[in-house]
Hints:
Elements: E1 7-15, H1 24-37, E2 54-56, E3 65-75, H2 81-89, E4 96-103, H3 111-114, E5 115-125, H4 132-142, E6 147-152, E7 155-160, E8 165-174, E9 177-185, H5 194-200, E10 209-217
Parallel strand pairs: 3-10
Antiparallel strand pairs: 1-3, 1-4, 2-3, 5-9, 5-10, 6-7, 8-9
Amino acid sequence: MSAPEMQRLRIAYARGEPVKFISHLDVLRTWHRAVRRAELPLAYTAGFSPHPRLLFASPLPVGVTGDWELVDIYLDNRMDADEATKRLDAQFPFGMDVRGVHEVPLNSSSLPSLMRYADYVVLLEERMPEGELDARIQRLLAAENLPRERRRDKDVRRYDLRPLIVDLPNALWRKDVIRLQMRLRCDSSAAGRPEEVTAALGFQERPQTIHRLGLILATPEETFKTA
C-alpha cells in the first residue's frame, strides 16, 4: 500500500448578504465544520493544540460581501477537486457558496503572501450636482498624499491613504444613488478600506453596501479567478 499523499486545494467561494455580519472567527468555524461534514481528509498542524490547515487570502471585514474569496485547504490524502466541490457546497449555510476548486503545488507561496489588490464596488445614497462626483474623484487621484487616521480603542495610527488607492475605474451617479468601483492595495503590509476612500471623497455617511468583487494575486497562474 502506498503512503498517503498530501494535497493543497485552492477554493473560491462567495459570502452573501445572509452571512455578511459574521466574524472571521465564525467563518473559520463554519469552514472547519463544513469540511468535517463533507468528510474531506483535512490536515492539522502538529503540536500540543493542533489546528486545521485552512489559510485565507484576506479575511472579509464584518458587513462586507464577496464574490470570489479564496482559501487554501490542506488534505492528508488526495481527492478529486470536482468531488471536493460537490461535497463542500452541500455543507455550507445559505449565503455561502463554493465557486470552484483547483489544486496548487504544496511548496508554492502562502496565499496571504501572494495578495496584491482587491476590487470593490460600493453603493452610497447622496445628492450632488451634476459633475461633482467626477470632480471629487479627479481631485483625489491627483493628490500626492491623503493623510488619514485609524483609531482603535485609545490607539491612533496615522497613515497615507493615497498609496493604497490603485484606481477608481468606474463611477455612476443616478438620482440619489452613487455606484463606485475601486481597486485598492491589499497585501501583507497594508490594505485600503473602501469606507476610508469614500470618506476621503467627502462622503459623510458610510456606504450602504460594500461588496468585494475579487482578489488579485501576484502570480496570475495561481489565481483562481480575478475580478
